[in-house]
């Protein structure tokens, strides 16, 4: 009867190694675009619009529209159990679409971002966040705009009894957190800030 020493020996397999990347490293400085001029077109409280004369590293020149906007702050407000998120259901006329959104808005010049995040939650929903904790920040349109979005989370909120802002929401809902992936897949949550923040919160809970 064969013993273990009689069995054929096998060589352990390893994960395949991808081929070496052969594209030359140009270096960061060599890939910078040159901005020869930026001409102001319009400057309002919520938008600074200009046209930039740009030259690429290979010498190609063109003009590009540039948008600069104030910072915005959005908040994921969870209920005490941490399984529902406070969202507003509203119509976005530019896309002509109804969507769930997180409460949030522009940061006023005289306030810090945490204050703006808390203020926007209360103004838009009638709920006062119990805490404001930083999550992350991102830029939604890096190729043509400077529009920093700052994301926060609140663990719990207090009902102030005030009505939701009629200019901001048709209704305010506590949406089950477990339903968020389906709502995103069904195109019911279309905003970049809402998707980034909610996926971050969901990922954090899965990794616990």
TrEMBL record:
Residues 1-16 have a biased composition (Polar residues). One of its GO terms (molecular function) is hydrolase activity. Residues 68-197 form the Nudix hydrolase domain. Residues 1-29 are annotated as: Disordered. Keywords: Hydrolase. It holds the Pfam family NUDIX. SUPFAM superfamilies: Nudix (SSF55811). Its cofactor is Mg(2+). InterPro entries: Nudix_hydrolase, NUDIX_hydrolase-like_dom_sf, NUDIX_hydrolase_CS, NUDIX_hydrolase_dom. Belongs to the Nudix hydrolase family. This is 8-oxo-dGTP pyrophosphatase MutT (NUDIX family). It comes from Kutzneria kofuensis.
